[in-house]
Fold each of these.
Amino acid sequence: MNTNSAVTNSQAVPNTPVAPADTPHPVTTMTPEAVVDALRALRPQIGDVTPLTSAQRRTLRSQSRTSNPVLQASLNVLGALDSITQVISTS
C-alpha cells in the first residue's frame, strides 16, 4: 500500500514585533518639490473645469450660509440617527 505523508519544513522565524493594524504609521513629509511633482502627475487625471462666474460664486456663497439654529438642528438629527441605528441593529 502506497501512502503519501506530508512533511513539514519547520524553520525558525525571528520574533520581530509587528505593529497592530490600528497603530498609526509615521507620516513621511514630502518636500515642496515632491508635492509639486505629485500635483503635476495628478493634473492630467482631472477633467477640464471651468471657473465659476462672479454671479455663480455669489449665489453659492449665499446658499451655503446657514443660521446657527438650523446648524444645531442638523447636528441633533445626526446624533439621533446614530441612536436609532444602534436601537435597530440590536433588535
Amino acid sequence: MTQETVLASPLTSDFTAGDSILRLPRLIERTGLSRSTIYALQIHNKFPKAVLLGGRAVGWLDAEVSAWLEERAAARKEAA
C-alpha cells in the first residue's frame, strides 16, 4: 500500500456541487504549511484527508480546510 493510498480517500457524500478542490500548491499557499507537514498531520488525523481525484492526483475539500483553519483560530483564542 502506498502513502498516497493511505492519505487519500475517494469523494464521499460529504462533497456537494458547490465545494471546490484545493490542489497541493494552493493548499500550501492557503495554510502556510509545508508538503511534509500536511502529510504528517494527515497521518495523525490532525488535518483533513486528501481526496483521490484519479490516478495519482489528489486534492483537499476547501470547506474541510476552511473548517480546520477556523478550529485552529478558535483554539488560539481559547489559549489566550
Amino acid sequence: MDRAPSLARTLPVVANANPLDEAKDLQAMLVSYAKQETIEPLKELGRYLAFGLAGSLLVFLGVLFIGLSVLRALQSETGTIFDGQSFASMGPYAASILVMGLLIALLLRAMSKAKKAVQ
C-alpha cells in the first residue's frame, strides 16, 4: 500500500525564526512596494506634466507673437487704408484675432487627431 507523504514531511522546516526579524522584513518589503507603486509613477507623472506645461506655454507664446506680428504688419504696411476715425481702423485687430483663432482651431484639430490615434 502506497501512502501519500504527510504534510509535515513536504513543508520546509523553518528554523527558529525571530518574529521581530520577520516583522522588519515585512516592513522593508512593504516600504519598497509602496515606493515602487506610488512614488516612481508620481515622478513620471510630474515629468510628463512639466513637459506638457512647458509645451503649452511655448505654443501660447507662438500664437500670441504671430497674432501681434499680423497686427503690426497690417498697421504699418497697408498705408492709409486702416487709418482714420472710420470703422475700417478695426480691420487689423479683427484680422489678427481671426489669424489667432485659426491657429487655435488648427491646434485643437491636431490634438483631437492625435488623441484618436492613441485610442
